[in-house]
Design goal:
4 domains, 572 residues, Glycosyltransferase, alpha+beta, four-stranded mixed β-sheet, 10 strands, Glutaredoxin, three-stranded antiparallel β-sheet
Length: 572
């Protein structure tokens, strides 16, 4: 009966209640906390929060500050609070439960209860008491499949692909435009996949993503221009003034690609507002970008932590905008952030620290987003230095985070706590890692990177991923890229020649996310991947290529898109 009551309390929603101003004596997450819990026979209460999360502040002020709650926690629990942005490994383990997420552990480290979101005192205190009275772990019906042994399967089977597409179809809100029901998200993976399908000629996806992104402009904050991560209503109204960096990257990439596709200045203007927000509000004096902005309850303002992961996201978004528009200040902001990250967050072994102290790291997310960003900088500048830096980081990822049994990528280099076992594998990071290694293989010609990507895709097509969620547009994106060559265009000409620069601008503006753009100035030596023998030509020229065919030399920027459109890039 106690367990039934506890389960019922977890399901029911509470009402905020006023209380005292001080909360528990929070501890930091560490193995020592659990050693102490065993020694003192106490439970552990983990509260995972975020700077920008309004209900986190509400729970601190109205639940954790309640005298009865504080007294009961002090008697029976060791309270631990973690800023989820500061610990990607813990965040990714419990992200389906927050924010805030509350996890109650037994003295031996066993997970007993996991709570999603805000709980008022009248519901929270009985859950604490019920857990202490009967510490039997609650069972949660979380879909998941088995991890299969390492596989180089790069294609989804027809059934799985059809199910994902059917779910996307069902999830589209025709009345209000956009994927999602009662709320709309800054959903980068869905938007990017839809834009690529639109470029491929899919009229259905084209109509939907055009309408979606026009509505998504309403997620831009009127004061700062920042992209909100979520709306509070199906019609895109009532944005939550929570502005994490992943939402800025999602908006920048989608609006920029839409502008490249259709030339509609409304998309360009929306993307420009996010660029200005990064420049005017989140840019740190050192050259990097602060983590986020919160304007909801408590008005926490700017989270002035400087994380490698968030800087990688910002760089990627900025170079996507530069590629689409040619506005050089965006690229300069990206270069400055990359220089800062290399100076302040680069590890001696080639990876990246998360923050200044890197508590619990290294984490996959930091090195992954930075490697992706550095690869984007190489594309956007034609500077080989950034390709070298991307390769160095990718080599660190391969040596540190790859699971040799499944081919997937672990979120961290070590367990968050000894009793939790192996680190988790984030699906989103596994998709990006697979895509990154695949594109890096094209830029470098190194078969080993392609093998890592194939193994990563093998993990993504396993039951461990496919049975855990139905909404998987990012898997469709990865599959499309693994089964097609990237759009490949090489400009040959001196980098101080305006004619070559104009050709390269046109190559960058071509609307494709899976793109290999190279600028070969013969004075720099051979290309990193000299897989094509280009002819000598008396003036700057561009060549659109696949592994078996290259176009005739193109000398007019306006001709490049037509040459690329003609090529079949499907792999056998």
């Amino acid at each position: 009966m106690r367990r039934m009551l506890l389960a019922l309390l977890i399901v029911l929603a509470g009402v905020p209640a006023a209380s005292a101003a001080e909360g528990p004596a929070w501890e930091a997450w560490s193995d020592k906390v659990f050693e102490r819990a065993r020694a003192e026979n106490k439970f552990v209460l983990l509260s995972l929060q975020s700077w920008w999360c309004p209900w986190c502040h509400t729970m601190n002020e109205e639940t954790f500050a309640d005298p009865d709650v504080r007294a009961y926690i002090a008697e029976h629990f060791i309270p631990v609070r973690v800023d989820q942005d500061s610990r990607p490994d813990i965040s990714q383990r419990y992200e389906r439960w927050g924010w805030p997420a509350t996890v109650l552990f037994g003295p031996d480290g066993t997970e007993i209860v996991k709570l999603r979101g805000f709980y008022s005192v009248r519901f929270f205190l009985p859950i604490l008491k019920g857990t202490v009275a009967d510490p039997t772990p609650l069972k949660y019906d979380i879909p998941s499949g088995d991890e299969r042994p390492i596989s180089r399967q790069v294609r989804l089977d027809d059934t799985a692909r059809a199910e994902i597409l059917a779910f996307m179809e069902k999830n589209y809100d025709r009345e209000n435009d956009g994927w999602g029901g009662r709320a709309k998200l800054a959903d980068g993976p869905t938007w990017t996949y839809a834009l690529d399908r639109a470029k491929a000629g899919d009229a259905g996806f084209a109509n939907r993503i055009r309408a979606t992104l026009l509505k998504a402009r309403g997620m831009l904050d009127a004061e700062h221009g920042a992209m909100a991560q979520v709306t509070g209503a199906a019609d895109w109204s009532k944005i939550h003034r929570e502005f994490p960096m992943f939402a800025q990257e999602a908006g920048l990439r989608a609006f920029s690609l839409a502008y490249s596709l259709w030339g509609d200045d409304r998309y360009r203007a929306a993307a420009r507002r996010i660029v200005d927000y990064l420049k005017d509000t989140l840019r740190a004096p050192e050259g990097g970008f602060y983590a986020s902005l919160g304007r909801e309850r408590g008005d926490p303002g700017i989270d002035r932590n400087l994380y490698a992961r968030e800087n990688g996201m910002a760089i990627s978004g900025l170079v996507a905008y530069f590629d689409a528009t040619g506005e050089a200040d965006a690229r300069e902001l990206a270069i400055a952030a990359a220089e800062w990250a290399l100076k302040a967050r680069r590890r001696p072994d080639g990876g990246f620290h998360h923050g200044a102290t890197d508590e619990g790291g290294p984490f996959l997310a930091d090195s992954l987003t930075m490697s992706w960003a550095l690869l984007g900088l190489h594309r956007s500048t034609g500077d080989r230095r950034w390709l070298d830096e991307a390769r160095r980081t990718a080599d660190f990822i391969a040596a540190t985070f790859v699971d040799p049994e499944t081919g997937g990528f672990f979120a961290g280099a070590r367990p968050e706590a000894g009793f939790l076992g192996k680190p988790v594998k984030s699906r989103e990071d596994n998709v990006l890692a697979t895509r990154m290694f695949n594109l890096l293989a094209a830029y470098t010609g190194e078969a080993g990177y392609r093998t890592i990507a194939e193994n990563g895709m093998g993990y993504l097509t396993s039951p461990a991923v496919l049975e855990a969620a139905a909404f998987l547009p990012d898997l469709l994106q990865a599959e499309a890229e693994m089964t097609h060559e990237p759009v490949h265009v090489t400009v040959i000409g001196r980098k101080d020649d305006p004619r070559a620069a104009a050709l390269y601008r046109a190559a960058l503006a071509y609307p494709a996310t899976h793109k290999r753009a190279e600028w070969w100035d013969r004075r720099e030596g051979t290309l990193a991947n000299p897989d094509v023998k280009y002819p000598d030509y008396p003036e700057p020229a561009a060549f659109a290529c696949t592994r078996t065919f290259c176009s005739l030399p193109v000398t007019g920027p306006g001709e490049i898109a037509g040459q690329l459109d003609r090529l079949d890039r499907a792999l056998p």
